[in-house]
Structures are given as C-alpha cells and as structure tokens.
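Lecture notes, unit on protein representations.

Consider one protein chain, 241 amino acids long.
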Amino acid sequence: MFRDEGVLFSNKNNVFKIGYIASIKPIITIFNSMYYPNHLIELEKGFSLYLPDALLVKKTFEQLSELDEDTPFPFWAKIWPSSIALIQFLTENANWINGKRVLELGAGIGQPSLKIAHLAKEVIVSDYSKEAVELMKKNIAHLALTNTQAIQLDWNKMDYAIQADTILLSDINYDAFEFDSLLQVIEHYIERGTTILIATPLRLMGAPFIESVQKYIQSVYKQTIAEFDNLVEVHVYVLNK
C-alpha cells in the first residue's frame, strides 16, 4: 500500500501510519522559486498542506549538490514520526496550547504548529532552513491562519526576545553537537515559566540529551507510529520548572 518516502498517515488502534498511497494524486503541483517541488496533499479530511514531492527530494538534492557541495540535505522536507506523535498528544492534551503563545523550534514542515494553530493565542513556527520557512509561509497562507507566523530562527543564535508559554520540539535531539545550545534554550525558557514539549524516537544517540533534561521532566507519554514496515516508538516529554 505504501511506497517510497511518504506523507500520509492514519490512526487505527492508536498506531499511526506514515506512507505514500500510490492511488492518491496531488491536488496541486507547485514549481516555483523553491528548490524542492511541492504538492498540495490532503493529510486528513479538511486538512491539507503543501509538502515537498517525496519522490523528487533526493534527486533535487543531488542536482543542487553538483552546484554546491555544501548543500545541506533537507531533513526538514519530510513528516517524521515524532511530529505525528506530537499532534496526537496535543489533540488529547489541548490545555498546553489553548489560548497560549506557542513557539516551535526546528519545525521543518511545521505540521504540529499548523495543525493546532486555531486553538492557540498566537503561534511562531520556525526553522534554520530558509526553504523550510518559505514552505511554512505558503501553508500559513493556504490555511488562512491569522495568528501564525513563520520565521527563520537558529537556536544556536536564539532570539530571547521571543516569548512563549509553550515550546514544541519534535525530533530535535539527533545531533550531539547541537545539545549544549539546545539545552541552554530550554533552561532559559523553563526558568521563565515556559512549558517545553519534546517528541522524540528512542534513538541511542539522543539518550544523553534526554538525560540532561531529566530534572525538568514532569511526565512522559508514549505513542507507536507505523512508518512503512517499521513501528517507531515515540515519547513525548513534558518539561517545566
């Protein structure tokens, strides 16, 4: 039923599936100033997003790399299991976002923020990648979200003027070189009363980071996400002072 890197998901018995359904055709295909072609895809009834063409991401990256060998791989250009788990968690625990100022860091596609924006007071969805931010802006306009903005933001050079009641972090603890900067951001906001929600798969390389924030963890929620033929266990951690 599923093929290649997919974007669609379904919920059955609390197991969420990510895949690309071969029989589904994109609503609209966009080729514009963005490097990665994107389609408007209906992810669930009444909710659609422009998403990078999963079948063209690798090919486009290879072409760009021929022009510039320092071109970063677009890890942002995919809906990861952690984002699905975070959406489910927020759907069942909307108290963390109802009427709140929400900030998502390293958002990539930004699906969690875009999905819950109608419940929040205001939302800032961010990523260090300019391309990711441009796509988020396109989706904000598509969804007609008047309380949401997308900005380019690198947590290594964090703008602490940004205020947030809740910060969303989805699958961000994969690079040990980033842990110190990220921990500094988390501690800064926790000291100011912000709640941090971290959704992460159980990667061995990510374990030291979770250990470093252990003292802030108030609760843990577990989700199982089916990605193609694999079941991915994702934990959502609630951190606060």
